[in-house]
Amino acid sequence: MKKQKKLIMLSNLLLDSLKKLNRSRLKQIQTLMEDFNDKCLEASKDKHLFDTAVEKSWLIGAESIRSRIERNLNDFSHHLQRFKELINTDETVMPNFIDIHAELVQTEQEFGELQFDLKEKTISVTTGDIVLNDISFGPFGIKLSICQLEKLYTDIPYRIIALEPNPAGGNDSVTHPHVSDERLCEGDGHVAIRNAIEQGRFCDFFTLIKSILQTYNPDSPYVSLDDWQGRSCYDCGYTISDDESYYCERCDREYCGQCSTYCRVCDTTVCLGCSSECYGCKEPICKDCMHVCKECEEAFCENCINEKGLCENCEAERNKNEDECSEKTDAQV
User: How far apart are the C-alpha atoms of 68 and 161, rounded to whole Å?
Assistant: First the structure.
């Protein structure tokens, strides 16, 4: 009886949210139609101006208008794609209470008991262990926010939560190649997921998400499976494997090959922040092997500075000054 009461409550909440979602979709279409109309008016004005400029041989003006039309067309193309996406949606038949109740029952048969948080107004299911290329990511919770359904066209109303997380090396927010900060990269499944929510096919919705989690797309991961066990470069954030990481002995952090070097004096591996460039030979040196010229105060390696603490140029300048003083003294004598 308690379980049945929960399903009835959930069905009513979902039905109400789907009605709000449908209204939201129609309002989105209304707004896009207004924008579409405005852009058509702008295009009509530009056509008139362009025709006038061409007829009067105002070539510079015509070229300027052409450039503006080109920019507007790029924006218009993106806007039109968004407009078509909403307009061309398969006719959404609003499910009734019985339909939604049946969907919830089917979801429980497929995934086990639904988790319902009355306070947060969320429903969740749990997947089994997700394994890709012999890497285990553990089970995931798919949490759908009932109150956020009406924001489907501007935000993702669900979260993907790693229950036994095995995050990418150096990036705890990536818990699956296609999940970052609990948000799923839907890829080609975007339209199918949206349609399932719009039509109240919640079992299909959860199944689609599970299917994406069980699939690896090497073209669009947040972190590839090849780099999963790697760690993040402290400087640029690039994920690196153990073989590609370099440990800076000065700051005790790990870096990639592009963000590290080695001291040409002591051969110590250091990051770019803990190294300097010898002003003389232009080779990298660590700060422990750096010597500052007493005259010009530039940094040099030990090979480019003498025992007096002078670089070659400053030594030559000092010798020159000493010779000039010696010559003056001899002349006075």
Answer: 46
